[in-house]
Amino acid sequence: MRPIILLLASLALPAFAAERSGAEVYESTCSECHAKGKHHAPIFGNAKQWNKLVREGLDDLVPAALAGVRKMPAKGGNPELSDLEVARAVIHMANAGGGRFAEPTSTDLARWRQKADKRRKKSHAETDRLRRQQPRPHLRPAAPGAPGRRQPAAYHLGALPEHHRRPVGRC
Asked: Distance between CA 24 and CA 111 in Å, rounded?
C-alpha cells in the first residue's frame, strides 16, 4: 500500500514544480512574437522600442500582459502561466530593453491582477458598446420606414450593381 502512495505522490510532484523564471517564460511563450516583432510587438533587447514602455512602468506593463493588449492575448496566449511567471517575463523583457526592475512582491502581484481584471472588464464593456453603436451595412430595413424586421442588403435590388439584377420580363 505504501509503495502505491509514494508512486502517486512522485507522479504529482511535477504539477507542483517551482515557478519558472522570466527567461524561461520568455523562451517558451513570449519569444514567438517579441523575438522578431510580430504584430508590432516590441523586440526583445531593443532599447528604443522598450524605452517608452519602461518609462510607463510595471503598473501598466504587467496588467496589460495579464489581460492582453491589442494583438497580444492574455498571458501571451498561455493560460497555464501564473501571474508571477507573467510578471517575471515582463520584467525580464523590460530589463533587457533598458529597465531596472526587481523581482515582484505578492503585493505587486495582487495590485496588477486587480488592474488587469479592471482592464479586461473595461475592454469588454467598450467592445459591447461599440458593437451596439456600429451600423450594420449588410442589413437594411425590409421596406422604407418598416420597423423591426431587417434583411441582408442583397435582397434589395437597389443594393446590387446593374449587371447583377435579373432582367424583368425574360426567363
From this structure: 24
